[in-house]
Amino acid sequence: MSTQQAPSSRNSATPTLVALFFGVFVMGCAEMLVVGVLDLIAADLRVSVSAAGALVTSFALGIAIGGPVLTVLTMKMNKRTVLIGVLFLFAVANLVLVLGSGYGLFLAARFFAGAVEGLFIGVAFVTGISMVPPERAGRAISMIISGVTVSAAVGVPLGTLASQELGWRGSFTTVIVLCVVALIATVALVPSVPVPSGPGAGRGAAGQAKYAFAPRVLAMLSLNVVVFASLYTALTYIVPFLRDVTGVTGAVVSVFLVAYGVATAVGSFGGGRFADRNAARALLVATTGTAVALLALYVVGSMPVLVALVLLAWGMLAMSMAPSLQLRVVTLAGPGAGLASSLPASATNVGIAVGSAAGGVAISDFGPSAPVITAAIIGVVGIVLAWATSYLKPPVVENTTEPAAQPS
What we know:
CATH architecture of the largest domain: Up-down Bundle
CATH topology of the largest domain: Growth Hormone, Chain: A
Number of domains: 2
Distance between the termini: 19 Å
CATH superfamily of the largest domain: MFS general substrate transporter like domains
Structural class: mainly alpha
């Protein structure tokens, strides 16, 4: 993917990547904060906890469906303008939660917030990649995507604690303030990023879709779905596993989970370097490692110290794949990279939904250890897909005679 006047030095790109990281971090906190305050929201809205849980589902659907749609609609806009507009709209969507009181309105606001987050993540990747030379694209992606993992490891627990003092509306007010800070940082640190020029870069939605939904890209997205289905089959029900199999309870469970969260953040940061070296090989190694880690977790489940060590390895390996998955999708899409950049987030949310459902069936029918071994089996499918997709190559695109787009 060619760019215009993109700075290539590491130092010039760093402030932009930090701003993009922070934007994704704030959105990740808002996305998952509902989980920690679900009972409070349910009581406030006078609905059941399961009904309040639909707020999580609506956000995920917003990312999966709304993100790509908004990406198509904003494809020809300057990326900096899109990022600024999205942060403003995200703050407004969360303001609706703070000031509103209707359940239907909350569902709509969460769907909209998810859609604009999906757009932000895709555009952030395009922007980050445009700021660095090609050999550092994976590290740029890892910096941005780490905003999600850090928000899960640090932001969500802190937000949940804050809700105990401020109430759930107070916690979301804090998110709005942080969103304004992210908006200011984006205005100050993110340069203008016009629509790229080069072969095929000026294609409209139909032209982009031809490449973004090519079989080679869909194969990579399938791997993305399987990777996160494996992860969330076990992760969704890891607390019952730790309680009933490992024998840890109370605050000790939180320690295990925080350690896992930190490991995922380390993995997502470090995974960018492996993506730059050889993304396809990194995926094959990491899918194999996660399947082995899940099998080990099943075997040593009754030994707390070993479980803690396996959780660390599993977290690092699982999230180290995120930069490689994103980079492979964008690379294989060629001229459709602008649209394709939003698709891994959609695939991830499909994988999360599939994984949580599979884990639910497993634990209901076979007990607390079943989600872990089920996740390992899904992980083996991931190994096969990682091996098969390692042979995929980007499209060869001939030069066209269409004039290059000029910076506005």
